[in-house]
Amino acid sequence: MASRSNSPISGIQSLLRDERFWKIAFQALIVLFVVDLLWHFSATLNDNMLGRGINFGFGFLGNPAGFAIGESLLDYQAQDAYSKVIQVGIINSLRVMIVGVILATTVGITAGVASFSDNWLLYKISRAYVGLVRNVPLLLQLFFWYLAVFFSFPAPRNPFLFPNANMSWLVLSKKGIYIPGPAFTPATWTGIILLAVSLLLIGLVFNSVKVVRSGSYRGGVGPLLGYGFSLLMIPVLLVAEFFLLFNWDAEKGLYFKGAFPSLMSSPQGLWVIVLLALIIPLVVLARWRTQVIVEQGQSGKPQLVAIALLLLLGLGILLFALGWESPVAALKDDGTFTGGVTGGLKLSLEYAAIVTGLTFYTGAFIAEIVRAGIQSVSQGQWEAARSLGLNSGLAMRMVVFPQALRVIIPPLNSEFANLAKNSSLALAIGYPDLYSVANTTFNQTGRPVEVFLLMMATYLIINLLISFNMNQLNSAVQFKER
Amino acid sequence: MTTTSPNSPLVVESSPPPIAQSGPVAWLRKHLFNTWYNTLLTVILAVVMLLAVWGIFNWAFRLAEWAVVPNNLALFMSGLYPAAQRSRIWAMLGVNVAMAGVTWGLLARNQAQLFGRSILIGVGILCAGLIIFPLTRPSAVALIGMVVLTLACAWGGKALGQRKLNLTQFLSAAWFLVYSISLLILAGGDIRNSLLFLVATIVLSIWLASIVFNVLTKFSVVDAISGNTVGIWAMRVLWFGGSLALFLPVYGFLNVPLPLKIVTMVTYIAFVSLLVPILADRRTLTTFVVAASMFGLGCFLITVVADLIGGTIGLQAIGTNNWGGLTLTLFLAITGIALCFPIGVLMALGRRSNLPIIKGLSIAYIELIRGVPLISILFMGQVMIPLFLPEGVRPDNIVRAIVGLTLFSSAYLAENVRAGLQAIPRGQSEAAASLGLNNPLTLSLIVLPQALKTAIPAIVGQFISLFQDTTLLGIVGLVELLGISNSILANPKYLGDYSEAYLFIAMLYWFFCYAMSLGSRRIELALNTER
Asked: Which long-range contacts does A471-479 make (Cβ < 8 Å, 24+ apart)?
């Protein structure tokens, strides 16, 4: 033994005693194991599919779907292709997600801020809402809204009208919920949804360009992969952006026109474009005003007047050019209702149920996030703001809330992602969202793998869009430190 | 000083009486009517609330048809479990309640009085409520029996805990035992197929192996073998054979091309079967091989003996398609929680590992799972798992559901645990390293306990959402609490009684979720070291 320990260690022995060697060996074993497992599963899958006479491929997407769906912004017929029904599903899902995110944020911030109210009743109501809604499963809440609330609406021939039959702002019946709305065609709504998505995509484009321009590919595998990914993403994103905005032909593969062709097809859509275009001079003017005030010490009054005029113009367009109309329940000669409703915005019960359920459920979680964020701002900030003479509303709005945002936004990101994913529960109440139509598609075609891959990719992309944009927002509200 | 002007503070003028600073009027003034807009808000909210409360009461006591709940209570609680066997559900409840009592008693062993006044009053109210409440009245005797059993077990547990001080460390093992006993009661059938038998076999084999091993060490057999050339070579051959015998049957099933098979086999044999016995310390190798063979022999013997005796204990086998209701919901949730926790912790550690491949795989797993809806994973479990397995192999519906639920939750849990790990300052692991602890010990003794403590609220939040997510299994065909409610509501007799049934199960869900978050707050308080 003694002679062995004195003898010089051979090359192979020193290799075997090296920790690095074992680390590599261990990882190599893991890689082999994972590759084996994945290969095994895919090979078995292939065998099973061949046994059923199915070849992997997406050719089936061109076949006629042959099933009707409840509601669609695109002009969908049962004999249209599977790819069209899936696009209809995606747009329906986006409709739920976009509206859900906006409403849930509103409800959540309101309830979160209300829990700091010095009004005891408001505080208690806000706490009760959060405690009640967070602890009951979302699916149960969806069933409740759909079956217990919305399905108890009166029959179409005997609708509930608010305030009265002559001037109704709200018409409720089993046929749907009618509220006042702008006179938009389905194409206009599609255009607005596509515009929203393309705005989110622009965030991703900017991020990729930033990564490529900073040239941060040094420092290991991770940054290199990120760099390559960004480099690859820029052309892909630009092409996607082009089709989302300018696709002019709604028949070849993509079954919707791009945002601009869709919006330009109706006068209301044109006004929407004008309204959105107003944002650019507003931002420029606001920046100019700040610059003038800070650097030249002027009052910035002319700019303020211009901003006010632009806002007034925007308000005018919003109120008068979009053709707002309220729903009117059609009457027969004898004074009974025919069951039809003209004008206004129709929300199907399924859509209303999924949006309501998601809004209140996610809103309760957002309320807790907002509450935790506001609590994280130190008491001294409140006191300093109050000692400057700000009242409690102003102190919250101008001092505390902006600081709370940096704590609020990261968890808000995952809450939005949860909302997007939870929108797939629409299947349970019969709203034809992406998951629901994908489910029918795979049942009919017997191609679960392809349909599942498509669906998974769509949800992953949507989540990626949400998290990239929220991360951008996050870095904008963080403390600027050295 | 000497002159006093009329304006000086010394001149007392009569001022109005001060506004009351305490009492209900002052409270109202301060909390509800302090400003004009708060007054307005209060009035509006109060009117709305009164209308809502009145509407709810009107509905609940005059319009609602509550018959759907008591008439189907057994379905809500245990689904399609055969009526003749429902006493087994009670037995299961009894076992769990007894264990809960023992746990309570053990944890409260240092308190002067186990049953304080508030607890006695609470128990009294609970028992009275069980008798008065129409829903629980039919089974009030059994339920009160459960309460008494809990109290008795708590008393016994306290007495036991005072006599034997180290019993608390066996609590989690005892709960695992209770879990496997409950599973046996629920499923029945052949005891040899049960989790309890598996656990018993493993524990007994370890016990037998340790006895034999003690005898062997007494006669220094291990040293004799490792000192002897023939002996150590026998051990090496045994390791070689054993590692291959465990690997080959599993690997033989894999459906991979020959080159990949050969590469894997060669790597495995080179690293595991050959290098390990050559490099390992002789004594360690001998100890391990001897202990492992004893263990294997023990398992084998117990199985043979059980086969000779035969394994039914008189409980009729109830297939999983008969499980349902609250029982199934709780079973799914508890199993899912117990399984997703270790996987989540491993994934979180993997994501923070400095081995790039482990890290990459963990990130890929977590981000992929977090990017898709749970319903699509459950759908994959129902539709695609059979496609991934050889023809004819079709795992049980509930097993597939639990696999989906666990895979999904563990990815979220991993992120929660990772946040906890990030909150632990680097100094902690550096201090541990300077004390001479190696990596696994640093993790298990220093970093993980602190990280998990920090992450308790997030982890329990994830458990709560796992509990809520069991409802999604209703969509893929299990009759858990929500699924069975929908089946009941499909009965023409109860058509339209949606609100009643949904409110009832919403209360059940709310109760369990709220209890979990309350428990998390208690644990947080108990573990708080910064008081």
From this structure: A471/A413, A472/A203, A472/A206, A472/A207, A473/A409, A474/A406, A474/A409, A474/A410, A474/A413, A477/A402, A477/A405, A477/A406, A477/A409, A478/A406, A479/A406
CA angle, residues B95, B100, B102, in degrees to nearest 5: 95
Residue A342 has phi, psi (to 5 degrees) of -110, 150
Average pLDDT, integer, range A428-445 = 91
Residue B92 predicted with pLDDT over 90: yes
| Whether A143 and B389 lie within 8 Å, measured CB to CB | no
With CA atoms as reference, the chain A residue closest to B390 would be A44
Note the pLDDT tens digit of each residue in A217-275: 666 677 788 788 888 888 998 999 998 888 888 777 788 888 888 888 888 889 999 99
Query: Best residue in B282, B357, B365, B377 to probe A by mutation, most A CBs within 10 Å?
Result: B357
DSSP code at position B444:
I
Measuring CA to CA, how many Å separate A438 from each of A63, A427, A444?
Answer: 14, 10, 10
* H or E stretch at A179: strand A176-179
Q: How many CB atoms lie within 10 A of CB B331?
A: 21
Note whether B358 contacts A27, CB cutoff 8 Å. Answer: yes
Order of strands, sheet of A168-173, starting from the edge strand that comes earlier in the sequence: A160-163, A168-173, A176-179, A345-347
Count of residues in chain B: 531
What tokens does B152 get? 């008795």
Contacts of B264 in chain A (CB under 8 A): 32-33, 36
Do residue B264 and residue A151 have CB atoms under 8 angstroms apart?
no
Which residues in chain A have Cβ-Cβ distances shorter than 8 Å to B372? 421, 455-456, 459-460
> Contact B45/A125, CB-based, under 8 Å?
yes
The pTM is what?
Answer: 0.89
pLDDT digits (tens, 9 = 90+) for A158-209: 888 877 777 788 888 888 899 888 888 888 999 999 999 998 888 888 878 8
Q: Which residue of B has its CA nearest to A425?
A: B375
Instruction: Tell me: pLDDT of A1 over 70.
Output: no
Query: Mind listing the pLDDT tens digit for each residue in B13-42?
Result: 677 777 667 778 888 887 778 788 888 888
The amino acid at residue B323 is: W
Q: Which of residues 123-142 of A touch B (CB under 8 A)?
A: 125, 131-132, 134-141
Using a CB-CB cut-off of 8 Å, the residues of chain B touching A464 are 371
The type of residue at A401 is F
Answer whether B49 sits within 8 Å of A125, measured CB to CB. Answer: yes
Beta bridge pairs of residue A347: A177
Residues of B in contact with A31 (CB under 8 A): 357
Beta strands in A302-412 (DSSP E): 324-325, 328-331, 337-342, 345-347
